[in-house]
Amino acid sequence: MSVNPGKWGVIYNPKAGTRKAHKRWKEIKEYMDSKGVSYDYVQSEGFGSVERLAGILANNDYRTIVIVGGDGALNDAINGIMMSNVENKSDIAIGIIPNGIGNDFARYWDEDLDYKKAVDCIIDNRQRKIDVGFCRYYNGKSHERRFFVNAVNIGLGARIVKITDQAKRFWGVKFLSYLTAFFLLFFERKLYRTHLKINGEHIRGRVMTICVGSASGYGQTPSAVPYNGWLDVSIIYRPEALQIFSGLWMLIQGRILNHKVVRSYRTKKVKVLRARNASVDLDGRLLPKHFPIEIGIKPEAVSLIIPK
User: Fold this and answer.
1) Is the peptide bond before 5 cis (omega within 30 degrees of 0)?
2) pLDDT tier, 17 (very low <50, low <70, confident <90, very high otherwise)
3) Do 67 and 22 sit in the same domain of this protein?
4) Same domain for 215 and 258?
5) Residue 206 falls inside a structural domain
6) Among 133, 171, 245, 301, which residue has the fewest nearby CB atoms (within 10 Å)?
7) 109 and 144: one domain?
8) CA neighbours within 13 Å on the CB side: how many for 57?
9) Do 59 and 202 lie in a common domain?
């Protein structure tokens, strides 16, 4: 199959928890048509389908792949592209039209959440090569590798994702699910026995959460830059009750690294030898817990379309 080099391959991932999925897509489609965009589009049909669709588009010579979705959908698409048969993955330009509650990676680039401005940005086609992180582990049968562009969370951050997914089945609304997760975790403040190796240093202890970020990591790695070939690591130990409120405020202000219970590192590789009973997620997608886990970075692996 030969595709016009300028044609977009659009993957539409309906926003979780909304009844206006078709109306939203109709508005986006009508705007792209009004701007004369040449595109083919497919709609995801459940968990895992975005990854499969992104791989199919990449293998069929689409060199502009647009994701209409949030961080989870973007993560799925990145994995589909990275596992495709395309020799030079950075030849593929990835565009984002934010369409989810979690749009942390788009916000890092000051992507406007308004779909019209996002479409205009993709039309302008200003590209930047970005790093892609990877996570390697053994699932008991074979060695697996998964990719990410924002962050890996181990412990609290991943636990929030897990509780949110469970609460969403009850509430049906993701915002209420997030509130439920934070309420439960405020009282829980669970610690995990961990053993990490960073820059040759063995780090052992009981920690609340670990974030390994190529980008902002939902505020936990605010100094991370997704195009410098490095990973930032934040390790958060157990805070006192009152420190939780100051920690949340510092997180919002982008100053979490100044908190007394936080230790930070910059590295190219992290080995998580143990994190007993801790959940793990990549860009909001839960990962099977199989330690040890090796986290690394592939510099300038893909191209992202960014605002001017």
Assistant:
1) no
2) very low
3) yes
4) yes
5) yes
6) 245
7) no
8) 35
9) no
What's the CATH number where 234 sits? Answer: 2.60.200.40
**For the segment 143-182, what is each residue's pLDDT rounded down to a tens digit?**
899 999 999 999 887 877 666 555 544 444 455 545 555 5
Print the domain residue range for 85. Answer: 8-125
**Which are the contacts of 115, defined by CB distance < 8 A and separation ≥ 6?**
24, 27, 28, 31, 68, 97, 98, 99
The answer on 93 and 16 residing in a single domain is yes
pLDDT tens-digit map of 181-201: 555 555 666 789 999 999 999
Answer for the pair 29, 59: CB distance below 8 angstroms, yes or no: no
Inter-residue contact 98 to 129 (CB < 8 Å):
no
- Tally the C-alpha atoms within 13 A of residue 64's C-alpha that lie toward its C-beta: 23
Predicted model pTM: 0.87
**Among 303, 149, 155, residue whose Cα is nearest residue 238:** 155
Are 38 and 142 within one domain? Answer: no
Burial 86-102 (b: 16+ CB within 10 A, else e): beebeebbbbbbbbbbb
Cα separation, 195 vs 203, in Å, equals: 6
Q: Tell me the one-letter amino acid at 118.
A: A
Q: Which amino acid would we find at residue 278?
A: A
Closest CA to 75 of 282, 214, 306, 296: 282
